[in-house]
Amino acid sequence: MDFVIDRAEHLGVSDNEISTLLHQVYVDGGYTSSEVAQRVFEPSLVRKRGQMFTARNTSNNQFAGMVIIVPPTSSAISLAKENECEMHLLGVKPEFRGSGLGRKLVAKAIQHSEINKYSKIILWTQKSMLQAQQLYESFGFRQTKEMTKNGIEFLVYERNNITNA
User: Fold this and answer.
1) Are 57 and 1 within 8 A, CB to CB?
2) Is 30 helix (H, G, I), strand (E, B) or coil?
3) How does pLDDT run across 42-54, given as a tens digit for each residue?
């Protein structure tokens, strides 16, 4: 399976595609309630967080996944400080899991953060998301602390950018 990964606006990703993906990954996956999802996954707000990279399957142009790099100037920043960024809402549609797409999206996010000379990427993931934790650790992210947000416990991961270390 092959994918094209680019900015959401370049791939013509619709609000409905974003909503469907986030619902499938986070609500159907049992990680987020429908009530919280309605509030935090509203597409116009999601788009405003930062630079959204999306993926489409090259064989049928189906929307397959996304990740957002949130700059320190964004109102969506939670933990990053000056010259650091956050990675938000990594998601791969269920039918594309196991294809390496999550890995490609994380690599794209890291590349974007290095091009923009951010010194560090910070993310958080739920304790039950073991596959995500393994993925992040394979890219050199290390767990630094725990936090609670919207009543859910998260593990916080950080990765220093090699080009700025």
Assistant:
1) yes
2) coil
3) 999 999 999 999 9
Q: Are 56 and 11 in contact (CB under 8 A)?
A: yes
The two tokens of residue 113 are 């953060």
Rounded CA-CA distance 91/66 in Å is 5
Residue type at 90? Answer: L
CA dist 23 and 26 (Å) reads: 5
Per residue, the 3-state secondary structure of 36-49, as one string, reads HHHHHCCHHHHHHC
Residue 23: exposure state from Cβ atoms within 10 A (0-12, 13-18, ≥19): middle
Both tokens of 121, joined, read 């990427």
DSSP annotation string for 66-80: EEEEEPTTSTT-SS-
Q: How far, in Å, are 69, 117, 129 from residue 125 at the CA level?
A: 15, 24, 7
pTM: 0.94
All structural domains of the chain, each given as residue ranges with its CATH number in brackets, are 3-164 (3.40.630.30)
